[in-house]
Model the fold of this input.
Amino acid sequence: MSARLEEARGLALAIGLNVGESFVYRVRQSRPATLFGSGQVEEIGRLVTEAQAELVVVDNGLTPVQQSNLEKAWGAKVIDRTGLILEIFGERAATAEGRLQVELAHLDYQAGRLVRSWTHLERQRGGFGFLGGPGETQIEADRRMIRDRMARIRRELDQVTRTRGLHRARRQRAPWPVIALVGYTNAGKSTLFNRLTGADVMAQDMLFATLDPTMRQISLPGIDKAILSDTVGFVSELPHQLVAAFRATLEELLSADLVLHVRDIAHVDTDAQRDDVLDVLADLGAIPEGDQSIDETPMIEVWNKLDLVTDPEHRAALLQRAEQERNVAVVSALTGEGIDALKRKLADILGQGHRRYELVLDSGDGAALAWLHAHGDILSEEHEAVGDEAQILLSVRMDPADHDRFLRQFTTRSTTS
Done:
């Protein structure tokens, strides 16, 4: 329970709120009017008054009636977990597609509620008006306006989906595999992304630091180029509106050649977080219930933040478990520990269709040798003299398509084993 409370505090801090007090209340029976019992409502009301709080976040779902009644009882704005997450997404979405997706989720969320501030349609800052702000106006928007706006957004997102599909088709025609990162929010996906790619994507100890997908190329042993995609983090009880809205973005997972499920292995609820991620993927139709693969795409669990595991016995047990699991890698994206082993594992999986070729080069053909080092995995290299000439005997593991490209580009002798 304490971990859930800390996560709720983290969500509030992620939106820049000043958290005065936070408590856990056990609700034996949900009250239709207020969720909490009358005594709890009065007690929380006293705390709100004493703290002079302007906003109360209930880390649970609230019906429109419950939200309205609690606001009247406490004399402060009240938002639930869904509203808070939507507010975070509203401020963080950087791309036009991300903003459309979040706005659609927000409209869907508000469609069944008393429409309050639709100021996001005219404000410059992010967010969606749950928290209020200086200079805002309250505009009563009717349901027909909401439906019309949702229809327009869906049409725009359909176009985005078609465009994304074309991009995926072009990538599939290219000889570059795609690796997608998924994981619970704050599991360290962006830090791992930066470590693998040398990029500078925002990576902070903050929930939902990354919302919009980012793609970069990486090099792996024996693989000239691969595309790494960082995606939005998941969270327990992720609003279903957001799951639906971000379906187009997360469809990248369905076309990936390999999926890395990044886990914060030092977190007390790491197993529960893993289950939450798999549940969301199942909701998207990406994996069967409880499965560990996306269609036929292999999935590797990357146990991240090993540097935070300070207990020697726990650390040793994790490393031993990882050795016994074929699709597990243990790393610290922050310090770089285990990154080389992870790259080798990625290369081995992506290179399962590669074949071994025996090649003979002239010793002076440096361009061909450099090309092979860049596009293949050199298993052995021997130099020998044949009469007055010198040659290089190579054993190279590489993709058959790369081998064909090599033969078209360079003159050499080649056999397959």
Q: What stands out?
A: Residues 261 and 301 are 5 Å apart (CA to CA). The chain has three domains: 1-173, 175-350, 355-416.
